[in-house]
Amino acid sequence: MAVYLHTTLEIRPSEFARFCETMEDIVSIVEGVGWKLTGGYVQRTGRLHTVIDLWELEDFNHFDRGMQAIGADPRSEGLRAALAEAVISETVVFASKAPYMRG
Questions:
Q1: 100 and 36 in contact (C-beta within 8 Å)?
Q2: How far apart are CA 8 and CA 99, in angstroms?
Q3: Nearest CA among 51, 1, 53, 8 for reference residue 30
Q4: Is 86 helix (H, G, I), strand (E, B) or coil?
Q5: What is the pTM (predicted TM-score) of this model?
Q6: pLDDT in tens, 18-39
Q7: What is the DSSP string of 12-80?
């Protein structure tokens, strides 16, 4: 049964472009171990510079495999530093499909 990872990230406006560049690398890394980015969104109302990502994972252990892949990548130190400067806050939620969801 799939597990969904929902992240909400508040980004410093001055770091938004750098955040997006960094996420390009991170997406490539975790897709390499099977994560599926089913949605990546930037809020246009409410708190601006807020990003919402929705990932499909195989199970809870798949999250750990993705984090290990990021840590093993030679760029990991730079990626972490870029995120530390760009991200004001992050909320991570695991979910499953609601009974009424189609598909």
A1: no
A2: 23
A3: 53
A4: helix
A5: 0.91
A6: 999 999 999 999 999 999 999 9
A7: -GGGHHHHHHHHHHHHHHHHTTT-EEEEEEE-SSSSTTEEEEEEEESSHHHHHHHHHHHHHSTTHHHHH
